[in-house]
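Help!! Second protein's tokens look totally different from the first
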Amino acid sequence: MSANPQWDISRALGVARLFHLVCGVRDACVTPFLTLYLRQLGLAAPWVGVLMGAKHLVAAFWAPSWAFLAKSYRKRRALLTGSLLGSAGASLLMALVPPPDEAPADPSCNASRGARPSALPPAAASIPRAVGAPGLRRAPAGGVHAPAGRPAGYAVGSVEGAGTAARVLPPVASGLRDTARAGAFKVGRTAPPLLAGGTAPGSPANLSAAKGDAGALGLSLEGLRWTFLLSLGSVVFWELLTAPLEQVADDSLYEYLDFVDATDRYGSLWIWRLLGLSAGVCGIAAAVGQLECFVATSGPRGVLHFYGYSVVSTVALLVSIAFPVPICRRQERSYETIKALSLVGGDPRLILLTFTVFLVGAATSAVQNFLFWHMKDHGSSELVMGFSVALGLLGEILLHPFKTTLLRKLSRMGTVGLGLGCLAAQLLYYSFLWSWWAALPAQILSAVSNGALWWAVKASVEDLATPRTERPLGAMFRGHIFGGGSSLGSFVGGFVVMYFSLAVLYRACCVLLLLWLALLLSIQSRLPQEQKINYSKLLVMEASDTSDSEQGTERDWLVKAMREEYSE
């Protein structure tokens, strides 16, 4: 205890609240808008899915490893400092990733300066420049005009002997879906050039033109590949530095409070993180909307998100200096994680819970990765996107006072079913999105589909876990299982968006969740009801009921608990 001369619980909790608040603001600067930025770099949906899948995979399996090593070698303070400092620099690497071609001017910035927006979105503009199909040119005054809702200024000229063709480029309504098919995944396949005059299809002139178009397309695809590889390296390196931070901070604070038997005050700290996320996601969106036209006049939009992330990481680094990290610690078993893993394979309730959390992770990734794409295509600003995220987070905070009542009235499994149903309803609603503001009402359901569902999962884990495995088992569900589902969902979701549509992805996830919900309820009703021994609850009950005359008398529950402990 000499290494910690003063155990100031109030000060430790105050610093922890501030740290969670600042880290929430920090994560909100980039995480919700990352896929939108990748789209602005010109990356198609499958590539974005691969990037996000790799990010979730690193977080799911790298963070527990580093947290274990930091605890074993007593280097938690160094890891906190290194993670915050390294992630502040690594985030700027994403801002340095160049798009495959020079990014066009932002139409909203042009409109604010009185200029007429005439540029295509970044990814769509690179493909027309790469393809360079003969006859594709700007329409002259008084010539053929593009229909309403399509990019202005592009039309196909006349072909001798064939009349005038009013072909124009279709809009990029589903986030590079056509771009990905035409350019990113069909290397060397170019559209045949329009025939000029009486030139035969196999003439040398047309063959040379086709070779030229293929060469231009090859250059553009090469640029897209480099953009993808640089983005992948930056995201993975960034996640390697960022992932261990939250788990190391939580473990340190929990052990600090455990030394003085104050762990009951640990459970309310998550609210401060949600408050930070809510404030950060709206604040960074408002700041980007005001400053982007003045700071990021060229290149892809959204670089200010990374600058903001770096600045807030520096603030979090200053707060982490006072963060409570205990140096002396109690000796604990090193195989608790392995023991928790064996519990999952031996309990049918935990197996059902594992599949549920895995599917929730896969479905949630579809919302997190592409909902902002959907809103952007309907004319939404980043401020509205940020406000939609804040609605769900604030709804979760407001629902928390009813947590005990909800779990008691519906039971844990009933609350899990309610969360699955609300998530399925959200996905179905998003598939029919008709305007930028239409996503806002459905975000309120996130209080149940995210908050209440995880409350029920945590309560079930605590009830089914054996002593000293509650936290490792809960971390496994939050990290490995949910992260693995998010990774797989990201990998598959990107290809579904490309080959079908975003609406098909959302409806498929909705159907999958509803089928699993029906199967879960039918299996759960057939399982025998069994309660595990909970030391803390039994000790509280015993302390209130035991009199002096009963001291020295062994209770049945104590005998069972000791037998279970020594048998393991």
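Here's the second one for comparison:
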Amino acid sequence: MGCGASIPDSPSNQVEYYDHVKMAPNGTGTVPMPAVAEEVSVNILEQAKEAPKPREEGSFVLPEGDFVDGRLGIIEESAIETLKGKLAVEELFCDEDFPADNSSIFFSEREETGIEWKRPSEIISEPKLFVDGASRRDVVQGKLGDCWFLSSCAAVARKPKLIERVVPPNQHLYGEEYSGLVVCRFWRFGEWVSVCVDDRLPTKDGEILFARSSDPTEFWVAILEKAYAKLHGSYEAMEGGQSMDAMVDLTGGLAERYDMEDTEDKNQLYKLLLKSSQNGAFITSSRKGDWKMATKADEHGLVEGHAYTVSGVARVRHETLGTVKLLRVRNPWANEAEWNGDWGDSDEKWDGISDEQKTKLGFHLTVDGEFWMCFDDFCGQFEEVSVCTIGPDFDHDGTVDYVGQVKAIKGEWVVGESAGGSRNDFEKFATNPQYLLTITEPDDDDENEGRCSVLIGLLQEHRRSLRSLGVKMIQIGFVIYKTDDPENRLPSYHFHYHYEEGTSGTYINFREVLARQELEPGHYVIIPATFLPDTPGHFMVRVYSPKPFELAKLD
């Protein structure tokens, strides 16, 4: 299916709404009878689209296969201790599951000569995981098309404690407690999982081949990239990906993508980015263009098909231009490839900004890949921006709101049982898993008029199963219906005669889709579905609300 909406072959369901009641088609319960007045007919035609492909990727793309078990690269904590216990005195850990050879770098038939695998202590004396904590300026991309991941690392590094949760700092790269084994942790499908690697890194001509830190004595960036590569099966398998997925893996947060072409109200988008930045959200963006040109910058100093970190959003007062909307953007190459247009480092417009404002902005003239640009130029040069928050933003204003409760429940679409597909076939749709959401009280905010704010997410299982295959991403979505019968599942005829309360929108093969709702106290049924019927998969429903609620599966 292309990027546009795809229309199924089956005819749409004609939905008529009635005033009176009659027996349901199966002889149980009641459904409305036609009113004497004019009937109202509503067409439901579910649609789906393909997620935009990552811009920066290699010439080799892993074939996609069905999900198996999702444990590739993941190890239990007890097994890590067993590995350490098996090491002899002065023996250093060597990871047999991710060996120091080309099989860990490439899955395709690509070959690279002259690669030497070296431990940090063989590269420099007294190496450390962190030097003065983590910073966005630490991250420097190497010869691998994983800017989507590294731009996310730089974004999350604005909160060093989060990076230290992923890469625990009390691990040694030399000295008495040094074992050669390093553990990283990632949030994967609702839980924090451990990945252990040895600290051997691919080098060429004495330099680390892939990502590194700007400080040659610091190694958290290189080790983290290696652990993430192990989750993917190889370094090469990381060429191409979604920044919002990487940010969620590093934080366990909630991420959304905004495509410039689909965003009509750019001013509202800027307000969201400004508030989100002020409230500690992590933001990345990717550039439009051909990824094959990603080896050099264009005439504007930007790299086509490349992912960047948005490290700051601000409004400044110019002495002649008035208020100007600016964004600070960072190229993970961390070199001279910087925006050279309006508001670039050397632009004369900065002369109209007071020194006090420059200080607050952290403005500097360092050649480090980080630069400012105005919001209009940003919208013209970048095709999307992704925002990740640690908690829910119920009203979508960029502020992480108070969470009274968060609950998650996992489920599965099983062919022939519970993989009913979309509402293009009501009979099959009714077989999908159904979850009862019970709202007990409204928000304290009077503006919600007796309603409760709820954020619902549907996350599909994404963990890699085999080194040789990527997991196929399914077009997913969910629908919310109100119910007066909280003890039972909604039958197929219910969908003929009732509007939904909310929906995640067009089905899409994103890893997670979200919907914000303001619901009156009562009972609701959440129905997660794949677009096409008989599509197997695992999923998790996440629900956030400032008020208490109940979430349970309807059997």
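Reply: Different proteins will give different token patterns, so don't panic. The chain has three domains: 13-52+402-554, 76-251, 254-389.
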